[in-house]
Records
---
Amino acid sequence: MPTIVLLALVGLAAQLVDGSLGMAYGVTSSTLLLAIGTNPAAASATVHLAEIGTTLASGVSHWKFGNVDWKVVLRVGVPGAIGAFAGATFLSNLSTDAAKPVMSLILLALGLYLLIRFTLKGLRTDRQGLPLRKRFLTPLGLVAGFVDATGGGGWGPVGTPALLASGRLEPRKVVGSIDTSEFLVAIAASLGFLFAIGSQGIDFTWVLALLIGGLIAAPLAAWLVRKVPGRVLGSAVGGVIVLTNARTILRSDWVGVGDTPTEGLVLGAIALVWIAAITWSVRAYRNDLAAGRGDVAAVGHGPAEPAGTSDDAAALADVTPVPPTR
């Protein structure tokens, strides 16, 4: 029972982050499942089965809040589904001993990307409105879908930063479109795993626990996408993923330093870097807000209103001298 409750809470927290940041449900949930001993293919299958329900709920919620660009959903989601099916088949044919460190290495790389990206860089908004081409979205979907299935997550960490970096789509629509298109990816990955391994190793009670937590969080996350400081949240989530998967790799046959002082020193150093990254992100977010650039750090807001407009202009009008009438 404690495990079921923990999974439900993880599903809730992961969907809250994923729905407001556009990433991290899969990598967060898969990291926990690996940590408690689930084999990689079963962990990824469990997460993707739960995601069929959570991504559907998330997509509907984002649609209701006007956060979805349906052209982007189709152009990135269909190739994403193809890549996910291929990735699921590939992972299912690896042995458990070989797959676990490989999957943790992929998750570690995604975590590092999240940590570095959101700690050091803001989000571009100066190119919004320019079209996103198929020649960009199709390969992006294929790669993100393959990584998502093999890593137990990765659709958001690959797709969301790529679309945000393009600067061509409003941040809240990037998050909403990636979350909505993930429904197609989750179905394809789940089918790939079920065809390859059947239900072997999949605990459907765990699937249900992750699903319930995600369903509770989905509507709230779609609303929070307009409010959440994505820079801070991205640094926090990235650090958790890096720390947990570094531990798995250190204890694998590749490295073999588990339960030694070396492991403690390495994990301690990662924890210090993580704390420093969050501190840096908080300060950068506050500086951006003070400078009137809140959108650089907050995923969901539109471009900051330039000084001298709107309320500022009205305030100036109140103190502007009126020429005397003749």
---
Amino acid sequence: MEMKTLDVIITRQDRPDSEPYDEEFSIPHRTNMNIITVLMEIRKNPVTKKGKKTTPVQWDMNCLEEVCGACSMVINGKPRQACSTLVDQLQQPIRLAPMTTFPVIRDLFLDRDRMFDALKRVKAWIPIDGTYDIGPGPRMAENTRQWAYELSKCFTCGVCLEACPNVNEKSDFLGPFVYSQVRLKNVHPTGEMNKEERLESFMGEGGLEWCGNSQNCVQSCPKGIPLTTSIAAINREATVQSFKSFFG
């Protein structure tokens, strides 16, 4: 019985400043393989389909359960996570490429610093007054907690930035994910104290005005986060904040 194989075409790049190129590999097929398994098979024996010895393919991964966002890449033209993408659900040959909205370090390994820099800019954290025990904080209403939990599922995978037409080399847009992060921290009983500061930072260059409302982000988000709802909510809050700043 002939062994079933998988053909995989990978867009590679040796250095951040070098030109990308494609290499095709053929590996044995196994049931329930995901893309990470495919890449590990290629790494064990980095030989192209034509029999040429090559360097092992570089990619990033950590949790292997769609939580860290590190293994995001473009799979058959769609940005998604390599750990949760099953081979048997894909058309062959499988094409793997790095996302285009992040600098490539090597092959499929990306520099996602722009996402974390965006979170720093909008102060996407809950500040506390010192490290000592100040007792229990204010409780969040249960109905608020339920929808806020949906926003907290964001794992900075970068898929929404890859899908957004307003995120490109000519734009400084922070990205769709920031809307929900600002909204999540602003609704927190303690985080609400810095609400105006977050809104002001997001109303600057590359902030909310740069969103074209294409809604690609909500369609591509692997966690189903209601990004367009957050966009509408932050737009309303920013309008109120702009009036406060103008007349304040």
